[in-house]
Inverse folding.
């Protein structure tokens, strides 16, 4: 091989690695992303059982049922509700009537099995995408964002 | 009064920075302005330091006429948190960013006396430009000096999650890392403007890159440990956008360290090194934008005002756009340097750069894709751990495989067979470890034995280099020790840094693969087991902290060897904000940890507890400490401090004295 051919081989080798990496990233972007839905979108989208999604909305007032480490509650956006079940520890700011994001997947019976529950550090904080969606639905004005702690059921 | 003086000092520093940039950029060819620019850089730093001191004084004395102190401080907070709450908010943290930026500028002025005058002037001019942009941002959109009248009697308290020692160390370390790369950026711009770039340039840039990288490494590791113990999720890395924002400059900065090495030693990869210098700081700016603008949905939420985000975005676009325009325009004028064979030290370092760069792109895509998709189509998605584990993980595997070969290959033309022979011991040992583990777990197919193989291969490969260079076992032992002592510090730091990476890999593999987890509810007097440890829930006790009250849940842990230790997990409610937080109980056994996370006490009087046994989890951060220590060691290497080749003679004379 001449020097020029050698150089060409090296450059082609590097390009091949880059191409592989790009292919990997693109395929992962197709398969490994998690969509975010509100409960009403969830109903409209026909999300498959077992597919990982994030849902966001308000924890329904009086919907919280706790049994040991298991917790059931309802997430709603004013138009539709989803029953959510979760095992483990919910964040400190998890409250009925407050915004919540849950990651998980649907069970065959239509219950959403959450693997992660996110509520924000800030008392008045609502996840931004929840706020946007609630505003779209006209549900925002009704949302009790500034309820004082103690007045809402912390779901114990 | 001191608040107004601080405000005034910041405005003055802004004007000086603007003048420094203007004068430096216009008159860099003439030596006449170099003293002026140096003095401007130092003065600018002193003024910003004064402004920052004014803020600290207001916070420490609980002067709530300062709006920022009112919003983020409380008279009952311990002194440490009164100080740290200065940067536990948007305005204060921007000022900290600026303080560190000007400190770096002043250091270039003070320690850069060996630099050619025109290069130093250009570097300081670019530093001044960055400083002016961010000081303008602070003064016009997020001034920390706003007063309130009448002054409130009491402050609203700092977000309780931030009332932690982590806030004292994590942001300053992280920002020092971020901002330090601005010096590399300025050097790159200076090289592009002056059109002069050679091995000496790389030699000047490398210490700055090394110092920034060291701080960034510590900052990220500290942030990871903080999230690990504070969030109570047992995880140490969530691939959260805020974390990625700090990780991308680290990846690019690591690539920069390695490519600058090639440039310094072999005068090759010049354009690429300049490009990386620009990219690394651009990613730091992007990180600042992502975190400070509030465009992200993050578990480490810092809600913020979107109009400010727009200003940072403009600064970001101007600097990155300007730098790349200059790069496109001038890069051709940089002559390509030394030739080398594909199998060589240079070749290995190019592969290192290839994988680090593509990994950076993978993280960048995963971080920005949700933002871009939502902006374009309105579809909300999140890109989480599965994406990053797949793409980033896959790209790290070849990196770890080839890593030990690098130091064994000669510059210019290496011998892969000879390198493999010298690494044979390490390879065999790593393989034996992995196979023994694989057999011990009943040939259960998982990623664990593979990860174990990679981690131990990297560690043993780094050790093999030291063994080889000291000719251990082939010459008398004392002679080997003498050789080891005589090795250049950079050789040691290479080995230690690579070992650190291997240690982190081992920590990740072991804490993920062998983790034990139990979720249950307990009443006082009951217990639960996890991975051979039994955890007994003793009692709850009410405690009064300085500015909170807590329910302290006491546990007694009995280890498999029968020893017992106590641990306490707390629920706190902070007086001022009435905000609750939870403090997990973490007990360290050797390199492993037992992690007790608690939920709120149920109405039935039972406590939800989540127990993890995390074997060798501390290795993750210990590896990072190794890397940072290696960076520090390399910085002390005499050869790095050599300013320019023509000054070597004088340095040698100094050393002889």
């Amino acid at each position: 091989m001449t020097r020029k051919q050698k150089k060409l081989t090296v450059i082609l080798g590097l390009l091949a690695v880059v191409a592989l990496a790009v292919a990997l990233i693109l395929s992962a972007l197709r398969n490994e992303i998690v969509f975010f839905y509100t409960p009403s979108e969830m109903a409209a989208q026909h999300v498959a059982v077992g597919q990982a999604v994030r849902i966001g909305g308000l924890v329904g007032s009086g919907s919280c049922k706790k049994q040991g480490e298991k917790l059931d509650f309802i997430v709603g956006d004013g138009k539709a509700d989803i029953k959510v079940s979760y095992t483990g520890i919910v964040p400190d700011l998890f409250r009925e009537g407050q915004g919540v994001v849950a990651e998980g997947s649907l069970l065959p019976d239509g219950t959403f099995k959450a693997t992660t529950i996110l509520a924000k550090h800030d008392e008045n904080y609502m996840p931004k995408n929840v706020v946007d969606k609630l505003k779209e639905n006209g549900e925002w004005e009704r949302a009790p964002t500034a309820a004082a702690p103690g007045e809402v059921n912390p779901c114990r | 009064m001191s608040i107004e003086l601080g405000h005034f000092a910041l405005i003055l520093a802004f004007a000086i920075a603007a003048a420094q940039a203007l004068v430096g950029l216009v008159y860099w060819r003439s030596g006449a302005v170099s003293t002026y620019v140096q003095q401007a850089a130092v003065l600018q730093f002193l003024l910003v330091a004064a402004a920052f001191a004014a803020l600290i004084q207001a916070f420490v004395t609980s002067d709530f006429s300062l709006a920022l102190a009112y919003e983020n401080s409380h008279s009952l907070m311990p002194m440490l948190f009164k100080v740290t709450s200065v940067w536990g908010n948007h305005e204060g943290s921007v000022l900290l960013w600026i303080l560190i930026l000007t400190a770096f500028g002043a250091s270039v002025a003070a320690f850069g006396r060996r630099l050619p005058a025109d290069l130093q002037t250009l570097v300081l001019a670019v530093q001044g430009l960055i400083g002016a942009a961010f000081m303008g941002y602070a003064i016009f959109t997020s001034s920390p000096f706003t007063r309130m009248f009448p002054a409130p009697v009491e402050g609203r308290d700092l977000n309780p999650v931030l009332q932690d020692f982590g806030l004292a160390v994590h942001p300053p370390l992280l920002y020092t890392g971020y901002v330090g790369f601005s010096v590399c950026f300025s050097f790159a711009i200076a090289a592009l403007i002056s059109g002069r770039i050679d091995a000496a340039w790389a030699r000047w840039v490398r210490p700055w890159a090394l110092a920034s990288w060291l701080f960034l490494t510590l900052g990220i590791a500290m942030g990871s440990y903080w999230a690990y113990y504070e969030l109570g999720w047992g995880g140490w890395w969530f691939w959260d956008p805020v974390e990625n924002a700090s990780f991308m400059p680290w990846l690019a900065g690591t690539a920069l360290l390695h490519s600058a090495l090639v440039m310094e030693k072999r005068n090759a990869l010049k354009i690429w090194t300049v490009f990386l210098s620009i990219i690394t700081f651009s990613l730091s700016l992007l990180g600042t934008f992502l975190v400070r603008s509030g465009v992200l949905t993050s578990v480490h939420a810092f809600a913020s005002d979107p109009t400010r985000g727009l200003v940072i975005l403009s600064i970001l676009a101007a600097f990155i756009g300007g730098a790349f325009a200059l790069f496109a325009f001038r890069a051709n004028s940089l002559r390509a340097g030394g030739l080398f064979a594909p199998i060589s030290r240079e070749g290995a370092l190019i592969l290192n750069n290839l994988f680090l760069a593509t990994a950076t792109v993978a993280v960048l895509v995963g971080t920005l894709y949700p933002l871009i998709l939502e902006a374009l189509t309105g579809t909300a998605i999140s890109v989480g751990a599965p994406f990053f584990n797949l793409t980033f993980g896959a790209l790290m595997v070849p990196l770890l495989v080839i890593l030990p070969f690098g130091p064994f290959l000669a510059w210019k033309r290496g011998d892969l067979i000879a390198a493999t022979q010298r690494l044979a011991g390490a390879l065999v040992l790593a393989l034996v470890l992995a196979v023994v583990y694989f057999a011990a777990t009943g040939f259960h197919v998982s990623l664990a034995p593979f990860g174990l193989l990679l981690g131990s291969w990297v560690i043993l490969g780094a050790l093999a280099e030291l063994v080889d260079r000291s000719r251990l076992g082939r010459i008398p032992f004392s002679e080997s020790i003498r050789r080891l002592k005589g090795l250049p510090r950079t050789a040691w730091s290479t080995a230690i840094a690579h070992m650190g990476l291997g240690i982190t890999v081992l920590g990740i593999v072991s804490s993920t693969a062998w983790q034990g987890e139990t979720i249950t509810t307990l009443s006082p007097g009951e217990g639960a087991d996890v991975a051979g440890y039994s955890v007994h829930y003793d009692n709850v006790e009410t405690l009064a902290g300085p500015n909170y009250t807590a329910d302290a849940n006491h546990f007694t842990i009995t280890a498999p060897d029968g020893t017992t230790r106590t641990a306490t997990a707390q629920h706190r409610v902070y007086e001022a904000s009435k905000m609750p937080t939870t403090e997990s109980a973490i007990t360290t056994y050797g390199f492993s940890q037992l992690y007790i996370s608690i939920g709120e006490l149920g109405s039935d009087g039972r406590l939800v507890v989540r127990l993890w046994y995390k074997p060798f989890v501390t290795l993750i951060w210990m590896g990072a400490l190794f890397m940072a220590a290696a960076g520090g060691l390399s910085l002390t290497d005499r050869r790095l401090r050599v300013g320019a080749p023509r000054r070597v003679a004088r340095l040698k004379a100094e050393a002889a004295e």
In short: The CA atoms of residues 65 and 72 of chain A lie 5 Å apart. Residues 3-31 of chain A form the longest helix (29 residues).
